[in-house]
Amino acid sequence: MRQIPLWVYVPAVIGICFILIGPLAIIVRMPWGDFWGSITSQASLDALRLGVLTAVVSTLLCVILGVPIAFVFARFQGIAVRVLRAVVLLPLVLPPVVGGIALLYALGRYGLVGQYLDRAGIQLAFTTAGVVVAQTFVAMPFLVLSVEGALRSAGADYEQIAATLGASPTRTLWKVTLPLVFPALTAGAVLAFARALGEFGATITFAGNLPGTTQTAPLKIYLDSINDPIEALPLSLVLMVVALFVVVAVHLRRSPAVGA
């Protein structure tokens, strides 16, 4: 077992307590008598149902669009690719509300692209589709990073061997590369789903907070917290448990560290 200086345990314990105090406070202050009735109310069920449905769709979009992006970033170098990579990963550090404003001015009814979509009868802002767009915008970088890292670690040796055996690039992709990075792809998709399910800032800015149409669970929690903070606790606990499940599921897929 590796030796750790004793003083390291002090900030480690403080940091762990800092993270745990919030969830613990929710559990302690939870109105358990009203818990089941709160999370099974029609408003809560509608918000959860809409959140899960849009998160699933946005995760599929992240896979469809993000995996090809990860392949490009992993297999090509150069200034242009680095700049594009920085742009794609921008939602990771961009305040979500700024992302929502960007989407609004890009895809809103009078936006840069949205004005042409509106003329074609396609409206994204303040619709359920807008929720999917906002979720995909903030969640895609998680999948791209996961798959790109796996591709870089795997290298291109197996792909080159498949090419020498006569496999086409498409066949190599489906039969060799994707199976190699499938665990990372799964982990990235799970993280993207969790990020989409918990998305708030970009969603409320671009899609609004319309019950039954664009109000997902985080938006309902926000509304409940304004009226009565205690009312926001049951649904908050549900999302916290989902997030914990996602983190545990992703980390369990990792191989245990080797060595003492």
From TrEMBL:
<comment type="function">
    <text>Part of the binding-protein-dependent transport system for molybdenum; probably responsible for the translocation of the substrate across the membrane.</text>
</comment>
<feature type="domain" description="ABC transmembrane type-1">
    <location>
        <begin position="48"/>
        <end position="248"/>
    </location>
</feature>
<dbReference type="InterPro" id="IPR000515">
    <property type="entry name" value="MetI-like"/>
</dbReference>
<feature type="transmembrane region" description="Helical">
    <location>
        <begin position="120"/>
        <end position="145"/>
    </location>
</feature>
<comment type="similarity">
    <text>Belongs to the binding-protein-dependent transport system permease family. CysTW subfamily.</text>
</comment>
<comment type="subunit">
    <text>The complex is composed of two ATP-binding proteins (CysA), two transmembrane proteins (CysT and CysW) and a solute-binding protein (CysP).</text>
</comment>
<dbReference type="InterPro" id="IPR006469">
    <property type="entry name" value="NifC_ABC_porter"/>
</dbReference>
<keyword id="KW-0500">Molybdenum</keyword>
<dbReference type="GO" id="GO:0015419">
    <property type="term" value="F:ABC-type sulfate transporter activity"/>
</dbReference>
<dbReference type="InterPro" id="IPR005667">
    <property type="entry name" value="Sulph_transpt2"/>
</dbReference>
<dbReference type="InterPro" id="IPR011867">
    <property type="entry name" value="ModB_ABC"/>
</dbReference>
<keyword id="KW-0813">Transport</keyword>
<feature type="transmembrane region" description="Helical">
    <location>
        <begin position="86"/>
        <end position="108"/>
    </location>
</feature>
<feature type="transmembrane region" description="Helical">
    <location>
        <begin position="232"/>
        <end position="252"/>
    </location>
</feature>
<feature type="transmembrane region" description="Helical">
    <location>
        <begin position="7"/>
        <end position="28"/>
    </location>
</feature>
<feature type="transmembrane region" description="Helical">
    <location>
        <begin position="48"/>
        <end position="74"/>
    </location>
</feature>
<protein>
    <recommendedName>
        <fullName>Molybdenum transport system permease</fullName>
    </recommendedName>
</protein>
<keyword id="KW-1133">Transmembrane helix</keyword>
<dbReference type="GO" id="GO:0005886">
    <property type="term" value="C:plasma membrane"/>
</dbReference>
<dbReference type="InterPro" id="IPR035906">
    <property type="entry name" value="MetI-like_sf"/>
</dbReference>
<dbReference type="Pfam" id="PF00528">
    <property type="entry name" value="BPD_transp_1"/>
</dbReference>
<keyword id="KW-0472">Membrane</keyword>
<comment type="function">
    <text>Part of the ABC transporter complex CysAWTP (TC 3.A.1.6.1) involved in sulfate/thiosulfate import. Probably responsible for the translocation of the substrate across the membrane.</text>
</comment>
<keyword id="KW-0764">Sulfate transport</keyword>
<keyword id="KW-1003">Cell membrane</keyword>
<dbReference type="GO" id="GO:0015098">
    <property type="term" value="F:molybdate ion transmembrane transporter activity"/>
</dbReference>
<keyword id="KW-0812">Transmembrane</keyword>
<feature type="transmembrane region" description="Helical">
    <location>
        <begin position="176"/>
        <end position="197"/>
    </location>
</feature>
